[in-house]
Structure formats: C-alpha cells, structure tokens
Amino acid sequence: MSYRPVFAVTEMDSNITADIDMRRSPSEAPAPVGARGGVRLSSFFDQAAVATREAVAAAATSEVVPGGTAIFEQDVPVDALVSLGSRGRARLERVMAGGVIPLGYRGTGDLLGESCLGGHQVRTERAVAMEEVEVVRVPLALARELLDTDPGLRHAVVNVLLARQREVEDRIESMLFRNVEGRLAEFLIAAADRWGVPTPRGVLISAPLTHFEIAQVIGSTRETVTLTLGALRREGILDVAGRRLILCDRAALAQRQ
C-alpha cells in the first residue's frame, strides 16, 4: 500500500516558495573567478596565506549547474577540487550494485569530494545539484602543490576531515540508539539549522527534500517517513509550504530525538 500526503498549497505557500526561488540567478557559462567579482572562494581557504588565496582565485573557474544534474560522477578521474560557490545545495551519494547510498548534503562554501586531497585518483562518490548551484573548481595539481607549502591550508584540510569523521560517528550513533521518529527529528532540526529561513509560520527548511531522500538518509522507508511527518504535522510541530517543510515547534521536536 502506498502513502502519499495531500497538502493544500495556499497563496502564502506560493509567496514563500517564490521568494526562496527568486534568490537564484540565471545560468551562466564558466568563467574565471576573478572575472566575476561576486564569486567567493570556499571558506576552506580562509586559513590559507594571502598568496595561496590569490593563486587559487587566479586559477579557479566557476559555472552554474542546473538542479538534478551531476556536478561530478563516481569512479571518474579527479582533476579538480570542487566547492559550492555563493548559492545552492548538493547531495553526495555512493552508487552501489544494490542501489544508491546517501552520504550527506553540502551547502554554500562547502567542499565536495575532498578525499582527492588525500591522494585518491578517482571520485569515490557522486555529487548531484539539488537545485541550481554555483560550482567553483580549483585545478587539483595546484591544490596539492599549495598543500605542500602552506601550513594554514593543511590545517584547514585536517579540520574538514575531522568534521566529516564526526558526521559519520553521529550518524552511526543515531542509527544504533534512536528509533525512526528520533532520527527524523534529529535530521529535521539539523536541516533547519543549516537551511532554515524564518517565516511567520516558523522556520522553513528551504531545501526541497523528498520523503524518499529523507528515508534514505535516516535509514527508513518512504512510507514510514510520510506517516511520521503526517503525525508531526497533526500535532502542530510541522507544517508545509508547497514541497518544503516548516518547523513550527522546535522544542517539541527536540523532545522526540
């Protein structure tokens, strides 16, 4: 039996989602970062020396990738260090014989496929744009060369790798010790912290996540996620605006973790 929620889209819903969508700019062709003054390098480079940042900015290119498009594919040679620019979100996933395993989400300023800095010659995962995203690519040879000479950049790499390790540990802990409702609550609170937009009805999670995607991330089924979201909505903890969720009562949701 299939469960599908029936959500009415109100005029307020349309206004909220339209406001989110209007923040995106039209697609542009790839261009040198320096030629598009609005493009900012990933915060990953904030700890690097000025000379390093200048070298990266001079060599990096930027392009806009449409939503639903692969930013890079799995098992292909690595030629660049990739990050998200001034807008957009991406989903990382690993393609296996039995299906696709979600690895996580990345937002503005985040690195994608940073394992290439550790010597991997091919991509170990696929990155897919969740919406129109700005992608900044730094030639891998240059990135590795700068790592050898810039202690600040090496420190930044360590910080990224430790953060990724913590994400994995937290996910394992959640899978082992929380039920589906607890894992869903944890996921929604994290999503609201990262992508939340204040609205009169609560904090809107601007990322258009499907029930199936959420189910993959928290280790459940789409039907169970749909039923649990419906229960939370009936209790007034959640609401919807089009295809996006609104967190109305964070304290009540936190108690479900």
From TrEMBL:
Keywords: DNA-binding, Transcription, Transcription regulation
Pfam families recorded: cNMP_binding, HTH_Crp_2
Domain HTH crp-type: 178-251
SMART domains per the UniProt record, alphabetical: HTH_CRP
Gene Ontology CC: cytosol
Keyword Transcription attached: yes
InterPro entries: cNMP-bd_dom (IPR000595), cNMP-bd_dom_sf (IPR018490), Env_Response_Regulators (IPR050397), HTH_CRP (IPR012318), RmlC-like_jellyroll (IPR014710), WH-like_DNA-bd_sf (IPR036388), WH_DNA-bd_sf (IPR036390)
GO molecular function: DNA binding; DNA-binding transcription factor activity
Top-level taxon of the source organism: Bacteria
Protein name per its UniProtKB record: cAMP-binding protein
Species of the source: Chondromyces apiculatus DSM 436
Classification of source organism: Bacteria, Pseudomonadati, Myxococcota, Polyangia, Polyangiales
